[in-house]
Amino acid sequence: NICRSTMAEAILSHLLTERKVREKWKVDSAGHGDWHLGKPPEERTLQVLARHSITDYTHTARLITEEDFFTSDYILCMDDYNLEELEAMKPVESQSVLWKLGDFDLKGARNIFDPYYSNTIEIYEKVYTQCYRCCEAFLDYALKN
C-alpha cells in the first residue's frame, strides 16, 4: 500500500478536486498484507506525483478492514491477485462493489503493474499514466451513476 494504490488515491483525489466534487467523496487506500504498515508512500511514487503537480498528498500504509467493506461504495484494486484476496475478505452482507481499477482502462490493460521492484522511474511514470487514465474513466462512470 505504498506504490500503485497510493498513486491512484492521490490521482483520484486530485481529479475530484479538479471536478469540484471532492467534498462528496472519501478516498483512501489500504493493503491486504502487512509488509509496509505504517510507512509513507514509496519515494518514487511521490516523485512522479510531484512531476504531475500533485504535491499535497500524504498517506500512511494501513490494512483494509471489515469496516471498509461497509463504508465504501467501491473498492478498487490493482490486479487479479488483489481482487481474489478482497473477494475472499468481503463479508457476505457488504454492498461494496469490487473492481480492478484497470477494468476502466480504455486501452484494455486490466492489471496495473507493481513498480516496486523496478529500478527505473520510467516504470512509475507508466503506472501513473495508466492510473490517471483509469481514474478518469472510473470517475466518469461513478459520477453518472
Automatic annotation (TrEMBL):
Location, primary (coarse class): cytoplasm
Keywords of the record: Cytoplasm, Hydrolase, Protein phosphatase
Protein name (Swiss-Prot/TrEMBL): Low molecular weight phosphotyrosine protein phosphatase
Transmembrane segments: none
CDD domains for this protein: LMWPTP (cd16343)
Span of the signal peptide: none
GO molecular function: acid phosphatase activity; non-membrane spanning protein tyrosine phosphatase activity
Gene Ontology CC: one annotated term: cytoplasm
Organism: Plakobranchus ocellatus
Reaction catalysed by this enzyme: a phosphate monoester + H2O = an alcohol + phosphate; O-phospho-L-tyrosyl-[protein] + H2O = L-tyrosyl-[protein] + phosphate
SUPFAM superfamilies: Phosphotyrosine protein phosphatases I
Gene3D superfamilies with a match to the protein in the record: 3.40.50.2300
Localization of this protein: Cytoplasm
Active-site residues from the entry: 4, 114 (proton donor)
Function field: Acts on tyrosine phosphorylated proteins, low-MW aryl phosphates and natural and synthetic acyl phosphates.
